Amino acid sequence: MSNEVVRAHLIAGGFPAGQAAGHDHDYARLRILEQLKERDYVHTSLSGDYEDIEKWLPQCKLLITYVARPVATDEQHEVLRQWVEGGGRWLALHGSSGGKAARRPNSSQREMVKMDYHNTLGGFFIHHPPIRKFQVSLVDTKHPLTQGLPETFETIDEPYMVELQAPEDTDVLLTADWGVVPPSEQGFYYKEDTAVLPGGSKRAIAFERKLSQGAVAYTTLGHCHTPTTNSQRTVHESVSPDHKPPLNLRGSWETEGFQTLLRNGISWALGEI
Q: What is the pTM (predicted TM-score) of this model?
């Protein structure tokens, strides 16, 4: 094996800087670093947001993001876009499809703001119903990211509704189906459920978005919280009959399916598979 060092950069954090924003970033950060550390030749730098991305990306082969609300500014996005187009691999997890939310006029609801960043990622978060149990289904059995995954696996997670931004350049790898979700006065405002895939009620749970010489792999999975980081007020009855959120939730992180997907994602980004 070559002794050549490969650089990776991990962004994990909430907004405002240092805040949890409803997620246990310390747990996610440690679990990701554990897998990266399995490879001695991979040296990893860390950030809590995109502020210093221009400092780290040029020397990196792999970017991993696990964020809740931090999003790249126009200038930071340009650095990110050029890096991916030049051959970089971006493994984006969970809240990476979110970002800014604007208050609706004369309303207590907020609406997610779509940015150029979301086009590069390939997905745009519009809303999620309460945390629930659901089945994840394998779509593309031949893709490197899905090797070793079962045809289906059950998980507990935030059921993200993510609208594909470049379907013509996107390979959907995993899907789930909890039906079309009509707008309500709870959570984020949206006009219609544009996250469902054409011809039904399934939605993308993981995909690869190709971009020139590089690519982005994204999965909606990965929520985790503790008593001091939780912001969930209620959960689906499939998680708790009384709808009270668990004090500690690791969800998908405790499934073999998600761990395999994460391991494959790192190997895919490093060119190992």
A: 0.97
The length of the chain in residues reads 273
Structural domains of the chain in order of their starting residue, each with its CATH number: 6-270 (3.40.50.880)
- Residues 241 and 35: their CA atoms lie apart, in Å, by 35
Q: For residue 3, what pLDDT is reported?
A: 72
Asked if pLDDT for residue 119 goes beyond 80, the answer is yes
